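Please review this pair:
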Amino acid sequence: MDFLFDYISVNTFWTILFTAHALLAVALLGALTHQAVALLVPPRIGSTDGFVRRFRSVSAPSYAAAVCLLWVLAFFFGGWIYAKYRIYVRIPIEQEGFYKTLGAFELKEHFSSIGLGLLPFYWYLWKNAHNKAYDSARKWLTIVLAAICWYTFLAGHIVNNVRGFGL
């Protein structure tokens, strides 16, 4: 890995890694939000064409593979960044006494791990989307994952706003 730093600075490397993590998180958030809205508010027959109708009229099963892949990639990049966070971000935030912010981030870590653990069930339920017996479980698991994704996204932004970008 040291050869990489012959070409880019250490700060540039971490900025690229953080930006990749953020872009993956935004893509995941968009995919899960579209899927959850499609489940909660299915399109009505005969409704007028508009933004809300198009937003909710996506094919929910087509998002499952993307959601799984994006979650794993965002989790991996977040875990890689986490080592730097523990030293350069968490300690100064703790010294400033922002304990609620730290607690929100700690909860983010737990929720994202729980979401990662739920992915095999999510994948199985969406792989069998034709099975009506799984409709309720599929709907609520998707909503839970979307809620986790929104919470982790917002908690990450709060920590970034408290400490700043660029570690």
Observations:
- The chain has six helices and no strands.
- Helices lie at 10-40, 51-56, 64-88, 90-96, 99-127, 135-163.
- The chain has a mean pLDDT of 86.
- The radius of gyration is 19 Å.
